[in-house]
Amino acid sequence: MLSPVMGSPSSSLESLSVKRETSRLENLADLVFGLALSVCALSLLGSPPQTQAQIQTDILWFMFSFMILIHFWADYSDIMTVLPIETRATLLLTEVMLFLVVLQPYLLYLLNQSGRELTEYASTIYALDLGGLMVISAFFYQQLSIEEKKLAPQESLARYRRTRDFHLISAACFFLTILPQFWTIQIGGTPTRYLIWLAPLVVTWISRILSWIRAHARR
Questions:
Q1: Which domain holds residue 170?
Q2: Residue 189: which region, alpha, beta or left (left: phi > 0; alpha: psi -120 to 50)?
Q3: What angle do CA 89, 93, 94 make, to 5 degrees?
Q4: DSSP assignment, residue 47?
Q5: Is 7 a domain residue?
Q6: What is the pLDDT of residues 114-156, one digit of tens each?
């Protein structure tokens, strides 16, 4: 007779299957993020810069894309340590997220190499891409923050809720910038659309630096 502590063989096999599927998906995600970063770097080679200003622009665009992808990879890795791939919605959104990640290098290439009219259109799609990634991350954090599911320790729920809210606000910012006014209005020759994109990234890195400082201050 099976011990009630051990559970049934069917539940153990189901748990093992979920863990295996999660592990495979995590490996695929790591590969997709790594390839996206590599292709972003290669996309800059399509049209070698002719001036110092072009070199600086290429580096800034790559830096922005690099930090965005690293941010989502770190968030996804953090989420998948707790959130099991147990529902169709979670699996589907993970697939959509990876598609949006793969799309990043292509959009970066268009932003760098296209004429002004096509660049505006590409930047609109890029804003939708970033907003979509933020919404998906917010959904994952929402799942983790539901107390009844008991996926995360009680002390982590508030942090997950704050992160969910931040991602939703960031998504709203990215979606808002698709309005043509944020392309035509410029500051120093730079569309305000680009400047608004920087805001969530700056807030994220400042928050991480402060968290690191607080963690070391307690030691």
A1: 15-217
A2: left
A3: 115
A4: S
A5: no
A6: 566 788 999 999 999 999 999 999 999 998 888 767 777 778 7
Whole-model pTM?
Answer: 0.80
Statement: residue 14 has pLDDT above 50: no
What is the distance between the alpha carbons of residues 174 and 130, in angstroms, rounded to a whole number? 7
Of 106, 125, 108, which Cα lies nearest the Cα of 175? 125
Domain-located, residue 155 = yes
Name the β-bridge partners of 187. 190
Residues 130/174, Cβ–Cβ less than 8 Å: yes
User: How far is 167 from 201, CA to CA, in rounded Å?
Assistant: 11
Total tally of structural domains belonging to the chain? 1
Residue 5 lies in a domain: no
Give the integer Cα–Cα distance in Å for 98 and 118.
Answer: 25
In a domain, 4, yes or no: no
Inter-CA distances, 206 with 10, 98, 135, 166, 209, Å: 47, 26, 21, 13, 5
- Helices in 81-153 by DSSP H: which ranges? 88-113, 116-145
- Bridge partners (DSSP) listed for residue 190: 187
The gap between the terminal CA atoms of the chain, to the nearest Å, is: 50
Q: Which two tokens stand for residue 74?
A: 């770190």
> What single DSSP character describes residue 44?
G
Task: In whole angstroms, give the CA distance from residue 132 to residue 134.
Answer: 5
Residue type for position 142: Q
